[in-house]
Write a structure and sequence with these properties.
There is one protein chain. By secondary structure, the protein is an alpha+beta fold. It has one domain: FAD/NAD(P)-binding domain (3-Layer(bba) Sandwich). The chain contains 13 helices and 22 strands. The strands form five sheets. It has an eight-stranded mixed β-sheet, with helices on both faces. Strands 8-2-1-12-20-19 form a six-stranded mixed β-sheet. The chain is globular and about 65 Å long. It starts with a strand and ends in a 13-residue tail after the last strand. The C terminus is likely disordered.
């Protein structure tokens, strides 16, 4: 079997290491940072993401520590009106095969990391920033920033939106600046007023040119806050401290309940959101991209981690082959994933109109969403949440037929209602 060099030790890279070694390969994961760790706070996992974790034998562990959500609550952030909720309880879970969960990003990363550390087929190397790659007919190497070459049979770029591997393979320059700034903070749950806790809800407050989302994490010990403002930011900053005054000014248009929660935030940090256009090709011979390196998307449909996990499982299924077949299997992976992930990338952009509209357009949106039945809301997201990665026996040509099966095929026409 093959030695695969995986660039990037985040959620996607570690999941990929677990997936490919199940096929008998070995994996070396290279991480830029001095240690394997995950930054950020809350992360939402729809049933498709949890199903991918099931395929990696981690679903039960994640479900045991995650907070399972009972509803997605859509609020008019200006008037305080509860517009609609998508029910996530029995009918939803039965239809899509798993719950909708929220976890602390570091908790999920730790579970993946511990599984990798327990595998004799996976090596982990930190402090190894990639600059690019080289390849020939027999193998591929990652070129580190210090000039060292780390060689294997193939290279998998899972090094995020600023991927050095993508920079060489696709060559599409810097990510696209959306001009939207997101402010994030975490509040101990005991500080939240009882009437605003909503311990099993993901809640959105929408406003003119802004919106605010919150949900519990860390087993319900904290409330994760993320507030987005279309403030036309020109500099793409990441993790920059922000004051309470900054947040108060950016979200002054929101009503009383949203303001009460925002006022509790401490230690705010800000990020200017970036993404990339979908591309047709993520492969170059013995090199392939996945996750945010291949299809980075805004977080507005809560599918970034889920799509990275799907990538990992599907690529792993396809690599039931010897070294000579790797380039063809990478091409097959690319062909199977680009339409679905590209659709979600564009939907995440389009959904900004849903969150940030105002005036008569906001009233029309509220009226439309409030008219939907529970089944219609579930139908609306079925093509994303209902996807299940499946692997079937090898076909006549000796290749694995790896597919995404969904409970509904049509994508929503007017953006994700969430």
């Amino acid at each position: 079997m093959s030695k695969l060099i995986i660039v990037g030790g985040g959620i996607g890279g570690l999941a990929t290491a677990l997936a490919v070694t199940r096929q008998g390969h070995t994996a070396l994961v290279l991480e830029r940072a001095p240690e394997f760790a995950e930054i950020g706070a809350g992360i939402q996992l729809a049933p498709n993401g949890i199903h991918a974790l099931d395929r990696l034998d981690l679903g039960e562990s994640v479900r045991s520590t995650a907070v399972l959500m009972d509803e997605l609550r859509f609020m008019d952030g200006v008037t305080g009106e509860h517009v609609v909720s998508m029910d996530l309880t029995d009918t939803y879970r039965e239809r899509f095969g798993n719950p909708y969960a929220v976890v602390h990003r570091a908790e999920l990363h730790t579970k993946l990391l511990e599984a990798c550390q327990a595998s004799e087929s996976i090596q982990l190397r930190s402090g190894a920033p990639a600059a690019g790659y080289e390849q020939d007919a027999y193998g591929a190497s990652v070129v580190l920033e210090n000039g060292e070459r780390v060689t294997g049979d193939a290279v998998i770029g899972a090094d995020g939106i600023h991927s050095a591997i993508r920079g060489q393979l696709v060559g599409d320059g810097a990510p696209r600046n959306t001009g939207i700034t997101v402010y994030r903070a975490i509040i101990p749950m005991e500080q939240i007023p009882e009437d605003l806790r909503h311990l099993t809800s993901v809640t959105w407050w929408t406003g003119p040119g802004c919106h605010f989302v919150h949900y519990p994490i860390a087993g319900g010990k904290y409330l994760n806050l993320a507030a987005s403002s279309d403030n036309k930011a020109t500099e793409t900053v990441a993790g920059v401290p922000a004051s309470k005054g900054d947040v108060r000014r950016e979200f002054a248009s929101l009503g009383e309940d949203a303001q009460r929660l925002l006022a509790l935030g401490e230690g705010w940090k800000s990020w200017v959101l970036v993404d990339r256009d979908p591309v047709e090709n993520w492969t170059d011979g013995r090199v392939v991209l996945l996750g945010d390196a291949a299809h980075p998307m805004l977080h507005y449909v809560a599918q970034g981690a889920c799509q990275g996990l799907e990538d990992a499982v599907i690529l792993g299924d396809l690599l039931d082959c010897d070294t000579s077949e790797l380039p063809l299997r990478f091409e097959k992976f690319n062909a199977e994933r680009r339409e679905r992930t590209g659709k979600i990338q564009l939907l995440a952009r389009e959904s900004i109109k849903l969150w940030h509209t105002q005036g008569p357009a906001a009233s029309a949106r509220n009226a439309q969403l409030s008219s939907y039945s529970a089944d219609q809301l579930h139908d609306y997201v079925a093509w994303m949440h209902g996807a299940r990665t499946t692997d079937s026996p090898a076909g006549a040509a000796g290749t694995t037929d790896t597919t995404i099966r969904t409970t509904a095929q049509a994508a929503p026409q007017n953006g994700d209602h969430r």
